[in-house]
Amino acid sequence: MSTTATQKRSIGAVLWDYMTTIDHKKIAHLYLIGGGFFFILGGLEAVVIRIQLIKPDNDFISAGLYNQMITMHGTTMIFLAAMPIILALMNAVLPLQIGARDVAFPFLNSLGFWLFMFGGILLNCSWFLGGAPDGGWTSYASFALTSPGHGIDFYVMGLQIAGAGTLMGGINFLVTVINMRAPGMTYMRMPLFTWASFITSVLILFAFPALTVALFLLMFDRMFGSAFFDVTMGGNSVIWQHLFWIFGHPEVYILILPVFGLFSDLFSTFSKKRLFGYTAMVFATMLIAFLGFMVWAHHMFTVGLGPVANSIFAIGTMAIAVPTGIKIFNWLLTMWGGNIKITAAMLWALGFIPSFTIGGMTGVMLGSAVADYQYHDTYFVVAHFHYVIVGGTVFGVFAGLHYWWPKMFGRILHEGLGKWTFWLFFIGFHLTFFIQHFLGLMGMPRRYWVFLEGQELDLGNWISTMGAFLMSVGVIMFLINVIITIKSPKAPADPWDGRTLEWAISSPPKFYNFKQLPLIRGLDPLWIEKTEGNGKIPPAEPLDDVHMPNNTFLPFLMSLGFFVAGFGFIYQTDHKLMLLPLYIGMAFALGCMAVRSFKDDLGYYIKKEDLEREAD
Amino acid sequence: MKGAIGKIKIAFLFAATALFLAGCGKENLTALVPKGSSAQKSMDLIILTTVVMTLVFIVVMILFVVVLARYRRKKGQEDYIPEQVEGNKTLEIVWTVIPIILVLIMAVPTVVYTFELADDSKAKDHINISVKGNQYWWHFDYTDDKLQTSQDLYIPTGEKVFIHLLSNDVTHSFWVPSIAGKMDVNPENENTMYLEAHEEGVYWGKCAEFCGPSHSLMDFKVIAVSPDKYKQWVKDMKEMDPKEKPETTVAQEGQKLFEEKSCIACHAIGPSPVAVGPNLTDFGNRTKYAGILEPTKENLVNWIVDPEKEKPGNKMTGKYPNVSKEEAGKIAEYLMQIKPSSVTPETAGK
């Protein structure tokens, strides 16, 4: 399937191809487009927030709209932008890095994407249907139960549907790594990005069910008259906080661990050195993931859990600094003695080190419970988690996109523009968020629609807003880069002198990835073959027919069913007639499942002769 | 000559302090200039952790800069292949053990302070105040003295005042940054913390847990006065006669309107255990109206006529018959002259 062939096809045919595809590389494109769209949406919401806070007592938007903005900014960025874009990178690269022809469950992969997409669209439909959710991205139950209108209902149903998609993605990658590794690709030969994605999938598997449960309880409270969180009826709203953070804290590591992995690959590649302390890195990642489940109550130091709980969670939180420190020092030592080439991708990786270290520092500071009584729910926390999520995850996503763009789309992003994007975004980022540490300690709580005059918070907020504008310019520059790259020349298979398996095949890879499954002889398999062999990965099997799955429209239809049912759930509280879409949607989704279960789809074979004709 | 240098020195010190304070935010609001014992403890830990973490950051940055300066690719080096080092066990141990020690240095005082701040075993020997959070105002019930106020919380300096926090609706959080860190005000369980202000002053308090459209407008003040003044205030508040006729006729008409327009249904003047709306016993001495408005008659009239405009989502809107500007002016006249005590925010430390 060459690019010229793609250009000849009609737009309708391309659309149909993407709507029915189960190829992990195309699903990666879909995740990137979907996640990218929501990233821009969430970014615009952030700019609106910052404009509202540019001066004291501003009336740019109303209090109600402001609360919808902060809620949707957080929810969109976490669930609909960061996670999907990370899943895009995993989809694009992970199967290639372990020498697989696809993920373990291609059908599930497609279903996961369409559930995410329809969930995200459902959530954003609220803007046009009486107002978006306004309970903050954490949607604490005591307030969420009292919020009028359907905003919070959209939050519940949208996240439930999107979350189911993510859970499927996690399970899929787990099984893929366990079952689909090429011959010789032992666990301890896997690239760090694959390792980190693998561990992340474990986190998804254990963290998301907590969210699912929390959302179900909230759904029943709001739509079906139960009272799990309603204090006046004997419920308890603190339980929501526990459930949310039992999910929410691992979620942070779900966002950061994959980019830890990809930075490890990048530092190694662009320093022309193997990763320093590979084993330590793997175990540090596991330790972070494990501890990530033990610290959720540090989001709740001020709830009144008592000194014993607060002390335990304080120490647990600080302990995470140890494995994170191990990673930082190993990255630095990977570059030590290396031959460092500063490409745009590497620039993002280098910018990550000071930015994320600051985020980690403030993380430890927040872990100190008594100090947290001052930081909690102020702009200090806002600064901290943006340093971690933007300075970590977003920098990582940009690094990954610059690095893997040729592998995903067959073109290299413009290096000069990439560096400009970095500097604008990097300076804008620090300008926006560094000052917020001080704003918080100077007495500015988070989620404040206005700050009143005469509190000496004016200058800091003004600087912060200017920084946000600079970040926006950076993002626009990246979009320009993406557009002009469409016309740039085709990328070679291995533009960065890579070390891992994905660089051994063409850019973009053939739809079956590997003509013959590769034989892996050690860590950094391509590097080994470059230095010890002939630069080509030896095949592990003779050339033979390749079994491939058929495209299918079912995942799209199933998700559509849940999407329709979602509206039914939300509006049946107003009118019994709305039970109709609920039943129709659910029946349709279940019908699609029945079709999927009872109809045999055995896939097809690519003939050996056809493979022989294809160039490498 | 010596005097001149001394003057310059003092001027310089003054300027430096002013600059430092300016960078730390507004006095009596910022957490960076603690004026109470809990805030001081938080500040101690903030400084300790900041110092330790900054040291780590400096080490990382030195390594980072050295690595980039020494090992960045130079011209003609494109094909140089460095030695492929696997790792180093000693180094791994070093950067595991040192952080563990650093974490311990921070963890021990954290645990000690956490237990100290949570200790309410001696609460019975001190003043106890029940604090109720409401969308979007604060109610203070001095349970021992059987008197109530709203929005302005009077406490004596130099001693611990235990406050018991409970919400009447959704979760709020009680935060007076200069005196103490925050504690959530939950609807289901009472939390206890103490305030101990070192010096007199009017301290800013804020709601720190997202509670609705006017979350950012849920300010209150803590007014710390000397124990003598505090005793005087309690005495005045108890002796206050809610039925007392105001002097001017306008205010008298306002008093009547206060009943006719059913303000009195929610707002108590004088001791009352029920508080549907803020208790107005010391209204004339309030630092702010509705928690946020400068205490002028114009502001109060606007507030009474259309509270929704000032505090979106508040529970007062629509609970009473229409009040004209003129009527509101009379009510304001009445409310603003209710000054039961000579101890006012202005007398606190100034």
Short note summarizing the structure:
The complex is a heterodimer of chains A (616) and B (350). Chain A has a single domain (24-527), classed as Cytochrome C Oxidase, Chain A.
Number of strand segments of chain B: 10
Instruction: Compute the number of helices of chain B.
Output: 8
**Quaternary arrangement of the chains shown?**
heterodimer
Q: So, CATH architecture of the domain at 249-347 in chain B?
A: Sandwich
Using the 3D structure, state the CATH architecture of chain A: Up-down Bundle
Mean pLDDT of chain A: 95
Share of residues in helices of chain A: 55-70%
Strand order of the largest sheet of chain A: 1-2
Q: Please give the count of helices of chain A.
A: 21
Please give the alpha-carbon distance between the first and last residues of chain A. Answer: 13 Å
CATH fold title of chain A:
Cytochrome C Oxidase, Chain A
H/E element string of chain A?
A: HHHHHHHHHHHHHHHHHHEHHEH
CATH topology title of the domain at 249-347 in chain B:
Immunoglobulin-like
CATH homologous superfamily designation of the domain at 249-347 in chain B = Cupredoxins -  blue copper proteins
How many DSSP-defined strands of chain A?
A: 2
Q: Could you name the ranges of chain A where pLDDT drops below 50 across 5 or more consecutive residues?
A: 1-6
Helix proportion of chain B: 25-40%
Question: What's the CATH first level of the domain at 249-347 in chain B?
Answer: Mainly Beta
Shape by Cα distribution of chain A: globular
Write the CATH homologous superfamily of chain A. Answer: Cytochrome c oxidase-like, subunit I domain
**What is the CA-based Rg of chain B, rounded?**
27 Å
